[in-house]
Specification:
This protein has 203 residues and is α/β, with parallel strands linked by helices. It has 10 helices and 9 strands. The longest helix is centred in the N-terminal third of the chain and has 17 residues, at 51-67. It starts with a helix and ends with a helix.
């Protein structure tokens, strides 16, 4: 799945940060997405756990199209949600765990898939499927040392640290082996926005 892996390589090539906009209204989601884009973040994820969340995704997709920005759907845990994400215009999908059926449905629909992992077994299964990028979740519970440990047996795997990440702890996780950090509420914090701007230019 070189195309899928290359897509994420390109998406995160100059920005080691992805923003997650969970539980906001469409208008608020767009406002926060604009703030993230202004800070130099190029990947935005909107989880689709409700009809209102799907509306928020569609709104951010529309706003992103005007700026040439990439927007994905998060918490995509069934093939039905893959179809929902596609209809809303998502460019990629993200899940909290690894389900081959969901990964296959997303890739077949033209949307690269980022599955969640928390163990060596998870990482090995994703690698066997052909995926080169995974989401380590929940990163704050796994701890920064988890990334260093996983880089030993899986040196080619690329990890997105998700869950409990912010602009202040992101450098520790990046230094330990995470390739990207995914932040949520940090976009609402003026002090963290400035830190994210600096972080986005350091890798």
């Amino acid at each position: 799945m070189e195309t899928v892996n290359d897509w994420f390589d390109d998406a995160f090539s100059s920005r080691p940060v992805m923003a997650i906009l969970r539980g906001f209204s469409p208008a608020r989601s767009v406002a926060l997405a604009q703030r993230g884009w202004d800070a130099g973040l190029t990947c935005i994820e909107v989880p689709v756990q409700s009809a209102a969340a799907v509306d928020a995704l569609a709104a951010v997709v529309s706003a992103g199209a005007e700026r040439g920005m990439t927007v994905g759907a998060g918490t995509v845990v069934t093939p039905d949600l893959v179809r929902t994400a596609q209809q809303a215009g998502a460019a990629f999908t993200v899940a909290p765990g690894f389900d081959p059926a969901v990964a296959r449905a997303s890739i077949d629909a033209g949307m690269p898939h980022l599955p969640g992992v928390a163990t060596g077994t998870d990482v090995q299964a994703a690698a066997a499927f052909g995926l080169g990028w995974v989401k380590a979740f929940p990163a704050s519970v796994l701890g920064a040392d988890w990334f260093a440990a996983m880089k030993g047996p899986f040196p080619a795997m690329r990890f997105v640290a998700t869950g409990g990440m912010n602009a202040r702890n992101a450098p520790d996780y990046l230094a330990a082996g995470a390739d990207v950090v995914a932040v949520g509420s940090a976009l609402e914090d003026d002090t963290q926005i400035d830190l994210l701007k600096d972080l986005s230019l350091t890798r």
